[in-house]
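Section 5: illustrative case.
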């Protein structure tokens, strides 16, 4: 029993020293990584770069507990989840939502709200935000859950330490920013889906 406790304590990492940019770092429940919410909000690509400069990455959300803890840490501030969609894919389904900004992150976890992701208004929305304090489409079950947004929106950065940006996100970052908010091609069938979605949402309003 004592040996088990000693091993557990030894596995606890020491978080980086607090700065004016990061504030106090918080250790996760397993004690093997630390999180911090940066003072200033910026775009997804910007957050990837800022976290990387700290020897960290955007979060690799592994499960419901990670998601709950990160949401609690961010408080009322909308924050960039580390997940993004490969540029130029239509986000009408979860197909393609398997890219993470963190190196070696292979998590399959997601917590999208009702009718998310959706490329709302037929615009490119390739990044994921959490903690938007509103009822998606009037449905209370979507409060504080994930939604897709254009990657150039200004949201808060949560950094995970130790870590590093993945090679994919460093390559995709400029495209994510450049394509953010651009209209989807008419051939995507997005306009028809949006009309159907609005009809479904009216029936779900609480």
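Designed sequence:
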């Amino acid at each position: 029993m004592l040996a088990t406790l000693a091993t557990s304590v030894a596995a606890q990492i020491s978080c980086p020293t607090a700065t004016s940019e990061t504030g106090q770092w918080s250790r996760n429940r397993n004690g093997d990584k630390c999180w911090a919410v940066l003072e200033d909000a910026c775009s997804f690509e910007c957050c990837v770069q800022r976290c990387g400069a700290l020897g960290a990455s955007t979060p690799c959300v592994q499960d419901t507990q990670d998601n709950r803890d990160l949401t609690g840490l961010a408080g009322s501030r909308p924050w960039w989840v580390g997940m993004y969609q490969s540029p130029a894919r239509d986000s009408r389904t979860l197909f393609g939502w398997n890219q993470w900004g963190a190196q070696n992150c292979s998590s399959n976890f997601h917590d999208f709200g009702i009718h998310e992701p959706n490329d709302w208004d037929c615009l490119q929305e390739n990044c994921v935000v959490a903690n938007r304090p509103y009822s998606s489409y009037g449905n209370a079950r979507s409060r504080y859950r994930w939604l897709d947004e254009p990657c150039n929106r200004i949201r808060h950065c949560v950094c995970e330490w130790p870590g590093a940006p993945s090679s994919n996100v460093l390559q995709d970052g400029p495209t994510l920013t450049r394509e953010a908010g651009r209209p989807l091609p008419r051939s995507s069938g997005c306009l028809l889906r949006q009309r159907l979605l609005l009809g479904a949402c009216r029936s779900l309003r609480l």
